[in-house]
TrEMBL record:
It is found in: Membrane. The chain crosses the membrane at residues 21-43, 91-109, 121-139, 277-295, 307-325, 331-352. Keywords: Ion channel, Ion transport, Membrane, Potassium, Transmembrane, Transmembrane helix, Transport. One of its GO terms (cellular component) is plasma membrane. It is a multi-pass membrane protein. Residues 84-145, 285-353 form the Potassium channel domain. The keyword Coiled coil does not apply. Belongs to the two pore domain potassium channel (TC 1.A.1.8) family. One of its GO terms (biological process) is stabilization of membrane potential. This is Potassium channel domain-containing protein. Its main location: membrane. It comes from the Eukaryota.
Length: 377
């Protein structure tokens, strides 16, 4: 009987393992498909149902209008707009530089592209090496940006905690003085320390604490704490980096190993970054808003909303090409802004990805608990 039950149990266990292996990936794919379907419904409703501003005389002649529209569409499809452009003006040095930036940043607006066969081949080879190089630069700069963000966020939290502690301390002091009629009524056992003391000072000023520790036989632990306090208060030792600066001939091999280890750790700071997603979203929109206020100064055809939309499409590397810059050479001066902005957006996407993964984990955990409870019942 047991031999007949064992294969069925093994088969059921294998099916469960396969199911739980495929289920998370299926959830991701289904979520993306649902997201695409919702977007298709939204844009078809918004863009497809817009009113057409045609004249009354143009509407009345429906048959002529249809014939004219079909012929015009056929002629436009046969037109190559590269015939009407001057290659020397379009492919100047700054224009070619702007094209290269759109290639390795994977933006690709579409208003400038290679026409010749050699240019297309060179574009593929250029993108083959430029895109990984751009991702490497973004990863390296992401570590620096993640370090700055984490340090700033931690210092802001420490400052906030200090301010709240001071406010609470002042409120407690006011309450104690109001309830007991001033500081003269305080007993000698209650002492308010305005500055934190180290362990030695606390031991000298409070003999009862030392007596109590002796009674409880914790002298050894207390001595260890004093040793640790002395080690923290001791001057810092000379690091290897300082020795390299003072004497470059020393530790050259270890310096090379340090550089190699730092190269191997590229991307670790971004992975370990832990700041609120709401804060990162605010930084992204504030960063884009700064460029959206500057861009209309030389692109007169754009207002703030269109410039914000254009900057968002650029930094997210979508690049529809629906908005064409009249002066793209000026936009090259914001190349550093684009690279930093792309990194900020990538970090925001990374944090959003972590939040989505945690949501999926909670969902899987709830489903697993529900299945276990159903099997037990």
């Amino acid at each position: 009987m047991k031999s007949n039950m064992f294969p069925s149990q093994l088969k059921e266990r294998t099916c469960c393992q396969v199911f739980w292996t495929i289920f998370p990936h299926a959830c991701f794919i289904c979520s993306l498909v649902i997201y695409a379907l919702l977007g298709a419904v939204m844009f078809s409703h918004v863009e497809g149902c817009r009113e057409s501003h045609e004249g009354e005389t143009y509407r009345n002649n429906e048959t002529k209008n249809e014939i004219f529209t079909n012929r015009t569409r056929d002629l436009i499809n046969e037109i190559d707009f590269s015939w009407f452009t001057d290659p020397s003006q379009k492919w100047s040095f700054l224009g070619s530089l702007f094209f290269c930036c759109t290639v390795f940043t994977t933006v690709g607006y579409g208003h400038i592209y290679p026409v010749t066969r050699l240019g297309k081949y060179l574009c593929m080879v250029y993108a083959l090496f430029g895109v990984p190089l751009m991702f490497l630069v973004l990863t390296d700069m992401g570590d620096i940006l993640a370090t700055i963000l984490s340090i700033s966020y931690n210092r802001a939290r420490k400052l906030q905690s200090k301010v709240l502690a001071r406010l609470s301390f002042r409120s407690c002091c006011k309450k104690s003085t109001d309830s007991k009629g001033g500081s003269a009524s305080l007993g000698p056992a209650k002492t308010v320390l305005l500055e934190p003391l180290n362990i030695k000072d606390a031991l000298k000023n409070n003999s009862s604490l030392k007596k109590k520790l002796g009674q409880n036989q914790n002298i050894e632990i207390f001595e260890r704490l004093i040793i640790r306090e002395n080690a923290l208060l001791a001057p810092p030792k000379l690091t290897r980096f300082e020795r390299w600066n003072s004497c470059p001939e020393l530790d050259k091999g270890e310096m090379v190993n340090h550089v190699i280890s730092s190269i191997n750790n590229i991307g670790k700071e971004v992975e370990q970054l832990d700041v609120p997603f709401s804060l990162m979203t605010f930084i992204v929109f504030a960063y884009i808003s700064c460029a959206a206020t500057v861009l209309p100064n030389w692109e007169r055809a754009l207002n703030f909303e269109e410039a914000f939309y254009f900057c968002f499409i650029t930094l997210t590397t979508i690049g529809f090409g629906d908005i064409k810059l009249q002066h793209p050479n000026f936009f090259l001066f914001l190349s550093v802004y684009i690279i930093v902005g792309m990194e900020i957006v990538i970090i925001a996407f990374k944090l959003g990805q972590d939040r989505i993964l945690s949501l999926y984990k909670k969902l899987l955990f709830c489903i697993g608990q529900k299945n276990v409870s159903d099997k037990n019942t």
